[in-house]
Amino acid sequence: MEGVVNAYDSALQMAWQQCCWPACVLIAQRAADYWIDKRRASFGSVYRAQELEALRNLGAHAVVAALDAEDEHAEARDAILPVSSVIRIAQSFSLYTELEDLVPEVIHQVALQTGAQRVVLLLARDDDLCLVMDSGVQGRSFYTEPPSLDNRDDLPRAVIRYVARTQQIQRFGLNAIHDNLLLDNDPYLNPPDTERQQKGTGMVVPLSYLGELIGVLYLEYALSDGVLDEQQTPLVEFLAAQAAISVRNIDLIDHLSREQNARSEAELRIKLADEELEYRRKMEEELNRLANTDGLTGLANRRQFLSRLKQRWEQFRDSRGSAFSVVMIDIDHFKAINDRYGHAGDQVLTELASTLVSVLRPQDHSARLGGEEFAILLDQQSAEDVRGVADRLRQRIEALQIELAGEVVRLTVSMGIAHADALDSTHEALLIRADNALYRAKHRGRNLVEEETVVG
Question: What is the domain extent for residue 311?
Answer without folding.
Answer: 302-452
